[in-house]
């Protein structure tokens, strides 16, 4: 199931507009904060699908009947572009464990590349809820490689994928390689992908915009 959150007007669409705007993008701190905000919104939306149990808490004046999420998810992200979005998710799932995977494009030429996964730091995810975040879901190749790498740490019970901007081709590709029960939360879906695998209109390179250009 794909949840396209931009189909309904909300404060999310304001943050999306700002991270796309070539002039506002010049402020790296603003870009990082907006990515973090988007991560927070994604966390709120995903939280609606997590099991919760009734319980009681003691207030200064008595007892209150409340519900609380039963188990915190494991939050996984792709270095380095996903760090700001990951921070937003962690702000809301503040007791969650985190997993970090390095995945990058090793270019053969201007249009061909391999996805390289060289680093994994993750807790045991066997039987747990896993949320994988990546700002840009362009082809889906990185997401699939990261998912396969995370399986070294166990088989998750449930998976959510969250992304700021995705393409239809990427969503189709990922759905073919991840479990059928996986749910996808995206801020927007852009139709076009360049020969160099950049989303159009997209926003450019999320990692460079957040943390500076790499050479």
Question: How would you describe what is shown here?
Answer:
31% of the residues lie in helices and 33% in strands. The protein has 215 residues and is an alpha/beta fold. It has one domain: Rossmann fold. Helix 1 (11-20) packs antiparallel against helix 2 (28-47) and helix 2 packs across helix 3 (83-92). The longest helix is centred in the first third of the chain and has 20 residues, at 28-47. The strands form three sheets. Strands 1, 4, 5, 6, 7, 8, 9 and 10 form an eight-stranded mixed β-sheet that branches. Strands 2-3 form a two-stranded antiparallel ribbon. It has a two-stranded antiparallel ribbon with strand order 11-12. The mean pLDDT is 92.
Helices, strands, pairings?
Blueprint: E1 2-4, H1 11-20, H2 28-47, E2 52-59, E3 62-69, E4 74-79, H3 83-92, E5 97-107, E6 113-121, E7 129-133, E8 136-137, H4 141-150, E9 158-166, H5 168-177, E10 183-189, E11 192-193, E12 199-200, H6 206-211
Parallel strand pairs: 1-10, 4-5, 4-7, 7-9, 8-9, 9-10
Antiparallel strand pairs: 2-3, 5-6, 11-12
């Amino acid at each position: 199931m794909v949840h396209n959150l931009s189909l309904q007007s909300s404060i999310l669409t304001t943050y999306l507009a700002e991270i796309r705007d070539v002039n506002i993008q010049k402020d790296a701190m603003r870009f990082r904060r907006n990515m973090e905000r988007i991560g927070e919104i994604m966390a709120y939306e995903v939280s609606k699908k997590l099991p919760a149990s009734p319980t009681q808490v003691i207030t200064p004046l008595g007892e209150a009947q409340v519900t609380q999420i039963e188990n915190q998810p494991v939050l996984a992200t792709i270095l380095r572009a996903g760090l700001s979005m990951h921070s937003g998710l962690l702000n809301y799932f503040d007791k969650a464990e985190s997993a970090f995977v390095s995945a990058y494009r090793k270019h053969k030429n201007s249009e061909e590349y391999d996805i390289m996964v060289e680093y994994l730091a993750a807790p045991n995810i066997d039987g747990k809820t896993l949320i994988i975040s990546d700002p840009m879901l362009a082809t889906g190749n990185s997401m699939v490689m990261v998912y396969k790498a995370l399986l070294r740490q166990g088989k998750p019970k449930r998976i959510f994928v969250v992304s700021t901007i995705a393409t239809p081709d990427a969503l189709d590709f990922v759905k073919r390689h991840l479990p059928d029960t996986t749910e996808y939360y995206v801020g927007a879906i852009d139709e076009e992908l360049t020969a160099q695998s950049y989303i159009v209109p997209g926003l450019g390179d999320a990692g460079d915009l957040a943390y500076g250009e790499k050479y």
